[in-house]
Write a structure and sequence with these properties.
Radius of gyration: 42 Å
Shape: extended
Distance between the termini: 140 Å
Order of helices and strands: HHHHHHHHHHHHEEHHH
Strand order of the largest sheet: 1-2
Length: 374
Amino acid sequence: MYQKGPIQTSNKEITWMMLEAGADTDVVNSVGRTAAQMAAFVGQHDCVTVINNFFSRERLDYYTKPQGLDKEPKLPVKLAGPLHKIITTTNLHPVKIVLLVKENPLLTEVEALQKCYYVLDLICEKCMKQRDMNEVLAMKMHYISCIFQKCILFLKEREDKLDGLIKSLLKGRDKDGFPVYQEKLIRECIRKFPYCEATLLQQLVRSIAPVEIGSDPTAFSVLTQAITGQMGFVEAEFCTTCGEKGAAKRCSTCKMVIYCDQNCQKMHWFTHKKACKMLKETHEKQEREAAKEKTWQESKQKKGAAQAEESISNQEPLMYGDSKEVEPKCEGDKAEEIISNKEIPVPSSPADILSKEETDLTDTAIAKAHESEE
């Protein structure tokens, strides 16, 4: 008995089991949210990744049966299992996909890979042309198809076959070890997406095109975030070789490069050894700067605390009753203060007043004399 409804679980394995049992990811709950939206809301980003990357085996088995006038199925039954494992993987690192191909002898044949990538192209087309368009799943199918085609190329033309492809993907440039070929391959896969009007494609191009090769964000990180959902926002360590999440082993020399196991470290050593010494110097410099910054911050805090204590000790203690109380001023006091601030003219002295009166009397007498003469 399985549950038909939104999946809300904190365990990605249980989420996967429910999906395989037939749980519907499109059903919404009472607040109108799907399982993936609720998982993202509560911070269960691993569950979001599982839900967004789920592709039922039943949908793939459709291509293992002859359809219409076809006499043979487009996909042999024996290839359905290995292909489904790659389709549902949440790790889209090109090295990881090549390793999944390499570990299954059924997929290491050119003819088998040709049938697989043809089916992936059909699924991509169906996702874009169906009523409920799924650009994310279409982009993922197209991306895996491009990796398969690159595998076919190396199987045909290189003696070292898939090992040569893995080395090409891992090989870093001398100055910093950045895998240029891997970056260019992922950009090429995105650029070849056949549906130019797709919103997802335009978003990817806008995010990647302005970025110089060797700078952040890388094409892999942008693509991973777009396809797997919220995984790009989760703080986690990823293997330098295969991109597996949760890697915890560091290079013992430089302490800058992370691996998930010794096999990944061995695969990457042929190119990492060129940059290991330089990365070690960079790591040591970062540690010295961090220690210096920490010491400076501690001394600054101590100095600030000492100044605070000194300012407190220099203040005279107030005795009981010594506190100065300021009496509130009434409106009358305020009026008096305004008047007192105005300039009042200084009165004239008595002599000045008398001299002024005498001048006025003289002027009056002269005026009367003129009138009598007339």
